[in-house]
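Researcher: Please predict.
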Amino acid sequence: MGKNKKILIADDDANILQITGFAMQKAGYEVLFARDGKQALDLFRNRQPDIVILDILMPEMDGTDVCAKIRAESKTPVIFLSSRDEEIDRIVGLEIGGDDYVTKPFSPRELVARVKAVLRRSDPDQDKADVTPLMAEKRHTAEHGCLTLDLDGYRAFWSGREVPLTATEFGLLKTIIAHPGKVYTRDDLMSHAYNEDNIVSDRTIDSHVRNLRDKFSAAGGNPIETVHGIGYKLSSCR
């Protein structure tokens, strides 16, 4: 999985850099290191990593600011690291475009597993065998009402207008559009849209759904309908 994939790890703790860097290199990834937010942003722009691991509290520029700048110019997946486990911190990290959030202290093996899971969701070549007949007929696109997903390019459109999404947001829509009439519980989405080695909470699902709605509202739509007391389902074009 790690072959030819490049990871940028940004943290002002040298010990964290050493431990996580060793684990990633052992997993087969090429690793770039940054000790502050400004260096992380410079390395991101110059070296174009496949995924970024960002500590939230760093000198020069904190991780949330770095993520916001990355999101303004790229869909590259971002995983946040933080010593704080407050729910509000997780939600803020996800709402500014993070794909996952890992609390310190953490197991290097857990972080490697989360990196693999996020990269699987962002890799256009992944899961091509997991395509419903509807998707196959559309030649690697999935459509429902005004919503169209380009499954190869990981692009989403509403009434022909592209809506930029993170890999995790796209994964949620890809899961829901596979069965347009199905109502998905949060547990369903956690087990299907996320890989089993990437543990998330139901509040994390809610944050991603809220992000999706905010992004699609700019295109005049809302792809996900809430079924109160149960979960979510795909909405129709309106």
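Model: Residues 202-217 form the longest helix (16 residues).
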